[in-house]
Design a protein that fits this description.
The chain crosses the membrane at residues 48-70. The protein is of the alpha/beta class and 372 residues long. The chain has helices spanning 45-71, 89-94, 126-133, 141-151, 165-178, 193-207, 224-231, 283-291, 303-314, 348-356, 359-362, and strands spanning 79-81, 84-86, 112-120, 153-161, 181-187, 209-217, 221-222, 240-246, 273-282, 317-320, 335-336. Helix 5 (165-178) links the parallel strand 4 (153-161) and strand 5. Helix 3 (126-133) packs parallel to helix 10, helix 6 (193-207) packs across helix 8 and helix 6 packs across helix 9 (303-314). The chain is globular, with a radius of gyration of 36 Å. The termini are far apart.
């Protein structure tokens, strides 16, 4: 039986059966009236229903996003200074308490180091970075931090940017895995190496408080312990430029590799300057570069010549050290590369691994400071 009848009177106390019908009743069939609980207008619930569905949708979306955020691998935060990024800093800070340093809770603005080493690399140098991480450059963030604490040296791969979305995506995957990059805001092009080098020194100075800043290429075999010993030596001159110093004829033929477009400003022979694969600048020198306006410094075609010209203008002390350009591993070698055949190691991806297997390269003892 239905719970109500459309034939019932809508008036309280009205007749149900028997007796004459009131005048407003008709003996003709009428359409059933709407139940008494119906809304008088269908327009009233629409805003309420729409709002309810919107709230439900937002709630479901929020729940799904929370589940996704919890389940996915969370990327470590990075430390920014302007448009330069240190992808390792978050790990450095979070592990300071773990390794006994309670004073570095949270992000440190400029960690104090003996030296900061920027390994210059590019988008097509993935094999070189892989070879380095399998030899002297730690592949694990914890080992990288331990190396920093043992030597006082911070190490990062330094790379610019690319307009190629695929290359940038591959770089992001590598960053996610290793966290050992410094990203700088400059186009990654061989002809723009002087601009990249200046951007590196500016970024490194802002991100790290180091006594020395080292520019190194990704195709050399390096002994971090011996480099630290070299940098720890007492020096009377605060404006210091350390490297394998050289001179040579200025190349003015556009067909040759080391062509110098502005050679007429230099003359027939280059001034004294360090080879490009690795050299060191003291903090006071880098502070001057960091303060310089980008367009105020002359850029030559060759990066090592460009740096050398700035060093002449700044009246620095040139410290020649052949241990950082050794063609073979010796008891005193700090950096090994195939000088003068190649600007770095020839076939570096394979040569790095070969050198690392040689005990004289990887396992010989660190020298006392007086022997470097």
């Amino acid at each position: 039986m239905p719970l109500f009848s459309h034939r019932s009177s809508a008036v309280s106390g009205g007749p149900v059966s028997g007796g004459p019908l009131p005048s407003f009743y008709s003996s003709k069939p009428v359409k059933p009236s709407k139940p008494f609980y119906s809304f008088s207008s269908t327009r009233t619930p629409l805003p309420l229903l729409a709002f309810s569905f919107l709230c439900l949708f937002i709630g479901l979306a929020g729940t799904l996003f929370a589940v996704y955020a919890i389940r996915r691998n969370q990327p470590l935060p990075v430390f920014h200074c302007g448009k330069s990024v240190d992808t390792f800093r978050a790990f450095y800070s979070s592990d300071s308490a773990k390794l006994g340093d309670d004073s570095n809770k949270g992000l440190v603005d400029r960690p104090k180091l003996l030296g900061f080493v920027g390994i210059q690399t590019g988008f097509d140098s993935g094999e070189r970075r892989a070879a380095l991480r399998s030899t002297w450059f730690p592949s694990d963030p914890e080992d990288l931090l331990r190396l920093e604490q043992a030597t006082g040296l911070g190490f990062r791969f330094v790379i610019g940017k690319s307009k190629d979305a695929k290359k940038m995506a591959m770089l992001e995957e590598e960053i996610e895995k290793y966290r050992d990059f410094m990203l700088i805001d400059v186009e990654e092009e061989y002809l723009k190496l002087p601009y990249k080098t200046l951007a590196f020194f500016k970024a490194a100075f802002k991100l790290f408080e180091a006594d020395y800043y080292v520019k190194a290429d990704d195709d050399i075999y390096l002994r971090p312990d011996r480099l630290a010993t070299l940098l720890a030596k007492e020096r009377s001159d605060s404006m210091t430029y350390i490297g394998c110093m050289k001179k040579g004829p200025v190349i003015t033929d556009p067909k040759l590799k080391w062509y110098e477009k502005s050679g007429h400003l230099i003359g027939n022979e280059y001034f004294l300057h360090a080879y490009g694969p690795i050299y060191v600048l003291s903090a006071e020198v880098v502070a001057s570069l960091a303060a310089a306006r980008n367009n105020s410094l002359r850029m030559f075609n060759n990066e090592d010549v460009t740096i050398g010209s700035w060093m002449l203008a700044m009246n620095v002390h040139h410290e020649d050290n052949r241990a950082i350009c050794d063609p073979r591993c010796t008891p005193k070698s700090i950096a090994v590369w195939d000088i003068p055949r190649c600007s770095g190691l020839c076939n570096p991806a394979s040569k790095l691994k070969e050198l690392h297997k040689i005990g004289m390269c990887s396992k010989s003892p660190t020298l006392p400071p007086d022997d470097v």
